[in-house]
Amino acid sequence: MNIFRLAGDMTHLLSIVTLLLKIHATKSCAGVSLRTQELYALVFVTRYLDLFFSFISVYNTCMKIIFITSSFTIIWYVRRHKVVSQTYDKEQDTFRYLFLIGPSLLLALILNHEFTLTEILWTFSIYLEAVAILPQLVLLQRTKNVDTLTGNYVFLLGAYRGLYLLNWVYRYFTEPGYRQWIVWTSGIVQTAIYCDFFYYYIKSWRNNERLSLPS
Which InterPro entries did the record assign (predicted)? Predict the structure, then answer.
């Protein structure tokens, strides 16, 4: 565990807390993409299958459980909560996520470290996480004005990935033989997807304006 990974994990956790705080406090999920949340739930479930047969540390196990349960909690709020679900903008959240799941699975079957079920599912989760934010970004572009908490949530998600890039660089120079090209490539793609959002987020923050993304 190094400082970059710890900071990345805490930033990821903070992003989830921010989103749950928005939903619980405002009783609204306006601007939140259910499709992105369902993709993240799929990412965590397929990545953390080792919870059933491998133990690394208490920290590692707790973080995995938190990510899985928080994802399904958000999905429950958007789908089932009698007040929050009424604010979900289903007509705008129409990104066809099968276009993300299908290619990610196909790529995992072709490019992986080992052709086993758990390894393929783990690789699939890495590829899918790289693009899982796309439905959320598209929704924010369609709705134009973005509330502060939703904007902060997306920004923190992007910051988490950026910190993980630094973690990988650190490990490359400090751990002999550390090579994870699938993770590196997917992480770079994921971070690049956030670049446009970062630009408008920082611009709105500097000008003290409400965040608004162009079409």
Answer: ER_ret_rcpt
Q: What pLDDT score was predicted for residue 79?
A: 96
Q: Where are the domains of the chain?
A: 3-212
Residue with tokens 């079920």: 117
Cα–Cα distance, 138 to 152 (Å, whole number): 16
Q: How far apart are CA 81 and CA 105, in angstroms?
A: 32
Q: Which residues share a beta bridge with 212? A: 145
Tell me if residue 169 falls in helix, strand or coil: helix
One-letter amino acid at 147 equals D
Structure tokens at 104: 């990610």
What is the predicted pLDDT for the residue at 145? Answer: 66
Residue 111 is given by DSSP the state: S
> What does the pLDDT read at residue 179?
83
What pLDDT does 210 receive? 84
CA 71, chain centre distance (Å):
10
pLDDT of residue 54 exceeding 90: no
pLDDT digits (tens, 9 = 90+) for 97-114: 899 999 999 999 999 988
Helix and strand numbers (H, E) in the chain are: 8, 2
Q: Is 5 helix (H, G, I), strand (E, B) or coil?
A: helix
pTM over 0.90: yes
Angstrom distances, CA of residue 86 to CA of 23, 79, 110, 148, 172 = 12, 9, 41, 20, 47
Give the Cα-Cα-Cα angle 33, 12, 61 (nearest 5 degrees).
Answer: 110
Residue length of the chain: 215
166 neighbors 4 (Cβ within 8 angstroms): yes
